[in-house]
Amino acid sequence: TSAKPMKETEGVSFVSEIMSTNVVTIEKDASVYKAAKIIMDSEFNHLPVVSKDSSLVGIVTAWDISKAVSQDKFDLVEDMMTRKVITAKTDERVDVVARRLDLKGVSALPVLNKENHVIGIITSDDISKLYARRH
Amino acid sequence: TSAKPMKETEGVSFVSEIMSTNVVTIEKDASVYKAAKIIMDSEFNHLPVVSKDSSLVGIVTAWDISKAVSQDKFDLVEDMMTRKVITAKTDERVDVVARRLDLKGVSALPVLNKENHVIGIITSDDISKLYARRH
Ligand SMILES: C[S@@+](CC[C@H](N)C(=O)[O-])C[C@H]1O[C@@H](n2cnc3c(N)ncnc32)[C@H](O)[C@@H]1O
Question: Which of A62, A102, A120, B5 has the highest CB neighbour number within 10 Å of its CB?
Answer without folding.
Answer: A62
